[in-house]
């Protein structure tokens, strides 16, 4: 089967994009297709698959499938790339438009020439802070802020919230020593998070700057996670490290994002989107 695709990335978080507005695909194959395109040896190599599809409730729709074939609810870097793709390909007319995701409808704004969008702002909406909304098991339905959290033999402090996807955030003294493998790989599968979780590590650099690294649910370590970095800014504000309502620069392995938790409760993320390859994947279904 021949699958036309575009490979795009947002600060290194790379996905294979298929356009289900222009082409027809069998939606029941998306989980397996994500596994197969992500394989660097027998596929294309990516952090997963993003399907751009028609929407009845917004201008376009987007679905995100991780490397292991599981479906996430949203994707911050993927939303910026989807916005670039649909605007450059004249699938929307205005530079401000709405994208449907499994986590709700988000508004995006693209900046640049019609054929060459470079930066995109995404209104990721309102973070969900109560335990049951993350979801996370526990004794009550309060917010999870610097809560003691046992991982193997260590006692850590976790701040958890839902912003597009479930996120657990740990603050560390130095990002280079962040235990991505030792803690990230374990916590993402921890039964206290019934839907699994994205695991982020944050080093606070100043009142408006932080380093962030991530172990993504379903994909492992990636160069960047837009919803995760946005959740990390909210977590830093909840812990009193950063003030609300200001632009925060988040340094990720693949580049920087500008993120603000505004006074109206919405979280705004701005960053680049890039196209790297267009082609046809010759898919031998496994
Ligand atoms: N990389 C993404 C998030 C992708 C989904 C995530 N792994 C999940 O399943 O929750 C981003 O940029 O937000």
Automatic annotation (TrEMBL):
TM spans (from-to): none
Site (Could be important to modulate the pK values of the two catalytic cysteine residues): 216
Gene3D superfamilies in UniProt: Diaminopimelate Epimerase, Chain A, domain 1 (3.10.310.10)
Active site: 75 (proton donor), 75, 225 (proton acceptor)
Binding, substrate: 13, 66, 76-77, 165, 198, 216-217, 226-227
Location(s) in or outside the cell: Cytoplasm
SUPFAM superfamilies found in the cross-reference section: Diaminopimelate epimerase-like
UniProt pathway: Amino-acid biosynthesis; L-lysine biosynthesis via DAP pathway; DL-2,6-diaminopimelate from LL-2,6-diaminopimelate: step 1/1
Molecular function terms, GO-annotated: diaminopimelate epimerase activity
Catalytic activity: (2S,6S)-2,6-diaminopimelate = meso-2,6-diaminopimelate
Entry's EC annotation: 5.1.1.7
Domain of life of the organism encoding this protein: Bacteria
UniProt keyword terms in alphabetical order: Amino-acid biosynthesis, Cytoplasm, Isomerase, Lysine biosynthesis
Cited InterPro entries: DAP_epimerase_AS, DAP_epimerase_DapF
Main location: cytoplasm
PANTHER family, per database record: DIAMINOPIMELATE EPIMERASE, DIAMINOPIMELATE EPIMERASE, CHLOROPLASTIC
Function, in words: Catalyzes the stereoinversion of LL-2,6-diaminopimelate (L,L-DAP) to meso-diaminopimelate (meso-DAP), a precursor of L-lysine and an essential component of the bacterial peptidoglycan.
UniProt similarity note: Belongs to the diaminopimelate epimerase family.
Oligomer status and interactors: Homodimer.
Entry protein name: Diaminopimelate epimerase
């Amino acid at each position: 089967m021949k699958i036309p695709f575009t490979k795009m990335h947002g600060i290194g978080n790379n996905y294979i994009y298929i356009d289900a507005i222009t082409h027809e695909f069998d939606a029941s194959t998306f989980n397996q297709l994500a596994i197969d395109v992500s394989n660097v040896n027998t596929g294309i190599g990516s952090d997963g698959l993003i399907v751009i599809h028609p929407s009845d409730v917004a201008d376009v729709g987007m679905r995100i499938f991780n490397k292991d074939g599981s479906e996430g609810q949203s994707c911050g870097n993927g939303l910026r790339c989807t916005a670039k793709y649909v605007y450059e390909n004249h699938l929307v007319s205005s530079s401000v438009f709405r994208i449907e995701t499994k986590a709700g409808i988000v508004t995006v704004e693209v900046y640049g020439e019609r054929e060459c969008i470079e930066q995109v702002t995404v209104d990721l909406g309102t973070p969900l802070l109560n335990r049951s909304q993350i979801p996370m098991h526990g004794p009550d339905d309060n917010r999870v802020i610097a809560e003691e959290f046992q991982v193997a033999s260590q006692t850590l402090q976790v701040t958890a919230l839902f912003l597009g996807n479930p996120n657990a955030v740990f603050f560390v003294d130095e990002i280079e020593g962040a235990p991505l493998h030792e803690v990230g790989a374990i916590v993402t599968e921890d039964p206290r998070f019934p839907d699994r979780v994205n695991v982020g590590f944050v080093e606070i650099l100043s009142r408006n700057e932080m380093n962030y690294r991530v172990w993504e649910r379903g994909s492992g370590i990636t160069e960047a996670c837009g919803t995760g970095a946005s959740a990390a800014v909210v977590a830093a504000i909840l812990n009193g490290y950063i003030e609300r309502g200001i632009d925060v620069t988040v340094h990720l392995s693949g580049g920087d994002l500008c993120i603000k938790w505004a006074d109206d409760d919405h979280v705004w993320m701005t960053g680049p989107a890039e196209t790297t390859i267009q082609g046809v994947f010759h898919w031998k279904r496994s």
